[in-house]
Specification:
Helices cover about 50% and strands about 20% of the residues. With about 250 residues, the protein is of the alpha+beta class. It has two domains: about 140 residues, no CATH class; about 100 residues, no CATH class. The chain has a three-stranded antiparallel β-sheet with strand order 3-4-5. Strands 1-2 form a two-stranded antiparallel ribbon. A hairpin with a 5-residue loop joins strand 4 and strand 5. The N terminus is likely disordered.
């Protein structure tokens, strides 16, 4: 448990769970969150309410955040704090006064606590959805490495009558390597993967036009299968959710 001294008494933090301590960065980020202007706070709240993907490891900022008065670093840090508070609120089945109490222990003023509390109340309806999404994200990174990024680059490669070097002897047309016959098109598929420990790997392969189109068609069929799978398993998810609610 987290123990700290407040007016000579031992107290326990609620929002961090057992065996975890608040970091100095988190303390400063909470205060920075509370110091956002009303317009910046509203932009942050609206993003949380409108999105279904709370992953902050995004390659580019959402358009609505780019157009807002939030700076990129402000958004990243503030969104991380809000996401943590909402997740732990749901995960540890806390009451809002318990979160406000912990913010006081972190050194926040009553005014700062009021600002953060107001934002949390505005987002209380999505905290279960965010919590479930975080568990789904966890399952998606456990086990085998996952794809972090993919690049496909097309190249036009020249075709000559022969290779510039030989592994065999061919005296019939020793100058054929100088004959330009045209172009062939090859795609380079570059896959970046990472495991749950953050170890990254890059794999590159080349494909002909026909191989690329076969891959493209296969991905389209796999997408159709995913839609069918989701349709058939939707009832299972609903049955599970209803069973949990009836307990």
């Amino acid at each position: 448990m987290f123990l700290t001294e407040l007016e000579g008494a031992s107290v326990e933090y609620k929002i961090f769970g057992p065996a975890r301590w608040p970091t100095d960065d988190f303390k400063s980020q909470v205060k920075a969150l509370a110091g956002l202007s009303d317009e910046q706070q509203n932009a942050l709240v609206q993003w949380f309410l409108s999105t279904s993907n709370y992953d902050l490891e995004m390659s580019s900022l959402p358009a609505e955040i780019v157009a807002s008065p939030l700076l990129p670093q402000q958004f990243q840090e503030a969104a991380e704090v809000v996401r943590t508070l909402l997740d732990n609120w749901q995960s540890y089945e806390l009451e809002l006064p318990e979160i406000e109490r912990d913010l006081l222990l972190l050194g926040c003023s009553q005014e700062e606590i009021s600002v953060v509390s107001k934002m949390l109340i505005s987002l209380s309806a999505i905290r279960e959805r965010l919590w479930i999404g975080a568990r789904e994200d966890l399952q998606q990174v456990l086990g085998l490495p996952t794809i972090a990024d993919v690049n496909i680059v097309w190249n036009a490669r020249p075709v000559f009558g022969g290779l510039p070097y030989y592994f065999w002897s061919d005296t019939r047309d020793e100058g054929s390597y100088r004959r330009f016959l045209g172009l062939t098109y090859l795609a380079t598929l570059e896959i970046f993967s990472a495991d749950s420990d953050g170890q990254k790997q890059r794999t590159s392969v080349q494909m002909t036009e026909s191989q690329f189109r076969r891959l493209f068609a296969g991905m389209k069929r796999a997408s159709e299968q995913l839609d069918i799978l989701k349709k058939h398993t939707k009832s299972i998810a609903l049955d599970t959710e209803n069973a949990e609610k009836s307990e």
